[in-house]
Amino acid sequence: MLEPSPHRSGFACLVGRPNAGKSTLTNALVGQKVAITSSRPQTTRHTIRGILHRPDAQLVLVDTPGLHRPRTLLGQRLNDLVHETLAEVDVVALCIPADEKVGPGDRFIAEALAAAPRSTKLAFVTKTDKASRQQIAEQLLAVTAMGDQLLGGFADVVPASAVSGEQVDVVAEVLLKHLPEGPRLYPDGELTDEPEQVMIAELVREAALEGVRDELPHSLAVVVEEMTKPDDGPLRVHVWIYVERDSQKGIVIGRGGARLKDVGIRSRRGIEKLLGTKVHLDLRVKVAKDWQRDPKQLQRLGF
Ligand SMILES: Nc1nc2c(ncn2[C@@H]2O[C@H](COP(=O)(O)OP(=O)(O)OP(=O)(O)O)[C@@H](O)[C@H]2O)c(=O)[nH]1
């Protein structure tokens, strides 16, 4: 009789430039929307874990913010978070889009990975649906060469598309293959250990950012102030959206409050789906001046 293969478990983390497709790939791997995707860079603020369950393995995916050169205290905090995460995980995968040349941003991150000696390093060439076969082949070579040069080689380099689903199964297999032997870390069926309130805040944040100007992503923080359940009605969720300036408050609220109303309708749908119950959502917009630079405010807003 064949010996059953040992159970594997551990943590993996996808890193890469802003917009490299980390959140979308995380969602494709876990099969549920846990991380927040947006066509704007640098929207992933929290370390969000998705869990991949297999009979013989369990992978805990940690989705970090994009590693970037910090400009503000918030940027610095995000980078610290990334470095802490990198030092702790078993596998780190650098995501590089198939349709964009390997550049200084990718090399900056590869060098940061070299400073985390414990973990296995992989590379995923993402968004292959946007590139020709020729482009993908060239990108695989370029990424492999960069790995050889900067961190002694990637253990595996895999092309995939989270949008078409092509090769996502291979990405999962490769991530699991490099995990150490170990027991189950979480019960079956658990997809994320993010607190509900953080996920609710992220849903509102995503809706509030949809279709607005470029400087807003870094100037917006969302906090769930209170959740109450009256006997005779749906769950009431009170959420505050913080902006830095009055002008930004105007953008979020929109003419006659139309935009905020729309944000409320769209995020309420997501929250109801997440919680599986009817929700009354109360959204308020507040100005917290220069919150990105103020340690006290950052702490209050959960950073
Ligand atoms: N065509 C295509 N688009 C993709 C794919 N994966 C991601 N995208 C798009 O690329 C953009 C960025 O994707 P994200 O997953 O948010 O990227 P990210 O690396 O998590 O970005 P940050 O949170 O800014 O660090 C979004 O508009 C996605 O829809 C893919 O496989 N194919």
From TrEMBL:
Keywords: Cell membrane, Cytoplasm, GTP-binding, Membrane, Nucleotide-binding, Ribosome biogenesis, RNA-binding, rRNA-binding. Residues 126-129 are annotated as: G4. It is a peripheral membrane protein. Belongs to the TRAFAC class TrmE-Era-EngA-EngB-Septin-like GTPase superfamily. Era GTPase family. Monomer. An essential GTPase that binds both GDP and GTP, with rapid nucleotide exchange. Plays a role in 16S rRNA processing and 30S ribosomal subunit biogenesis and possibly also in cell cycle regulation and energy metabolism. This is GTPase Era. It comes from Kineococcus gynurae. The gene is era.
